Amino acid sequence: MTLGEGTVCGIAGIIYRHSRDYSRLGSDLLTLIQPLESRGPDSSGVALYHSHQPSSVFTIVLRGQGKSRWQDVLQWFEAIAPVAQTAAITNGQRIRLDLSGLEGLDLTTVRWGFRQQFPDLHWVSAGYSLEVYKEVGAVANLDNAYGLHDFSGSHGIGHTRMATESAVDTDHCHPFTAGTDLAIVHNGQISNYYRLRFQLERSGVIFETDNDSELLAHYINYHLQQGEALESVLYRLLDVVDGTYTFLVATVDYVGLVRDRTAAKPAVIYETENMVAIASEYRALLNLPDFNPKATVREPDASEINIWSTATGLKLAPPLSKALL
Amino acid sequence: MSNSVTITKTTIDCAQFSTREINQQLKALAAEGVQEITILNPQGRHNLGVGLEAPVTVRFQGPVGYYCGGLGDGIRFTIDGTCGWSVGENLMSGQIVVQGNASAMAAASAHGGVVCILGDAGPRAGISLKGATLIVTGSVGHSSAFMMQQGRMIVCGDAGPNLGDSIYDGEIFVAGAIASLGADAKLVPMTEQDWQVLTTELAPWGITAKVHPFKKIVCAQQLYHFQAKDFSKWKDAY
């Protein structure tokens, strides 16, 4: 009996409808991805959107090997904006910039500058709400390394990895991010990764790794930056990106779930009046503390796009299947 | 006075055992002559009841994961809930009833027996069917009956795009709308014998075949002897 395409990487996501549940985010998301370790034993990661930082605080998560020059990094950032807070995290640093005195941040210039100054360091995530944490090994490693079970936030996405296209190390873990507050987790393989990557790089996009999944984050972010709506970008993506993919994309305001044109990779959606949860396999949902067996559980169709508002947990528009258009 | 007690019915609570232990117990119980087994708390587990070659009746009280009843021979399973991918994969004989929706690849490569989904099935339902009968009272998804070789798929609802793509042989019946046909699949007229077969197959599930507008799809056999230059006989999978 072959396991075939049913295995390989697990993805999950949670959106709470009510702020009273925000304190559960870290704990619930880790609980949700833990059973998916059997799909992806190499590493795990989460992208969490916190609810408690003031809106002028910009958080950057960085990773580095061994003894990195964190003091130099902090000094470099101080020249851009005041560093409100900094914390050492496992193999990395989390820096919170106070942008209250500035008119935003030219992130593209900052990224390019950072890449030139510190080419050995890895830019994990950046945003007003977003924090990304990843680690090799079991999900327990992730919690142990970063103490995420106390993380409070409105929504988050997570991933367990079985490396198929690129190396197993922390930098190649999902979630991947692009721009400000955008993260993705992906199950599948992207066949035309290099061609699409080169197109984006010619437009000034910086790729952190050679992991094909990272493409999704940059492709979506690039088109959102052009002013396109998320739904429109995701529909175009179905035609442009070749391969197998079920993925979740998260921003501050939305979480989107996309399945490729043949529904090659699994996804299950669970919706109650308190939350929306997505997971690669039904059995992962059973771990949720207040799992309701009578709740709406459904599998999206091939080419189906679901987008939820993170403010309300409500779906943006009825799920539309491209096949019917 | 009888010196021995024959147990005919028993229960296994999945919460207490690994999947391997459950499956080993099922085989052992079947060998001892137990006729009916109830499985509690399946909790969406994969590979429940695989490789069971015995005429035993098993009821799963709850949703199951992937491959439930796979490689079964003579089994009679009922799943009170949804099932994951590939329910009844490579079933040799027997019957599996799913009282809920099936995920992708229901009855994948099944050789004999009946798999009945009392709900919708997902993409690739009946993929590589090899002689079994797959009945879906709801709809089936994308690329169903892909590379079907033998057997019968009966769909009371709709069929998604690319139905019967690369079919070799066998018969597909769809009562609802067909989004599109796959490569080498073609519609043919229903015969009186077809209606009789449908009536017989659907009656146990409380469905009167004749009130539904079933259509029949079989292999057009244009790709049996394939010439790469015959582009007109290709169907673009995209």
Describe the protein's architecture and organization.
The complex is a heterodimer of chains A (325) and B (238). Chain A is α+β, with helices and mostly antiparallel strands and 325 residues long. Chain A is 23% helix and 32% strand. Chain A has a single domain (4-53, 129-324), classed as 4-Layer Sandwich (Glutamine Phosphoribosylpyrophosphate, subunit 1, domain 1). Chain A has helices spanning 25-33, 70-78, 107-117, 139-146, 193-202, 214-225, 230-240, 282-285, and strands at 10-16, 43-50, 57-63, 83-89, 92-98, 122-127, 130-136, 153-161, 176-178, 182-190, 243-250, 254-259, 268-271, 275-279, 296-298, 304-309, 320-321. Chain B has 238 residues and is an alpha/beta fold. Chain B has one domain: Pectate Lyase C-like (3 Solenoid), CATH 2.160.20.60. Chain B has two helices and eleven strands. Chain B has helices spanning 19-31, 192-202; strands at residues 9-13, 36-40, 57-61, 73-79, 93-98, 114-117, 130-136, 150-155, 171-174, 185-188, 215-219. The longest helix of chain B is centred in the first third of the chain and has 13 residues, at 19-31. Chain B is elongated. The chains are: A alpha+beta (325), B alpha/beta (238).
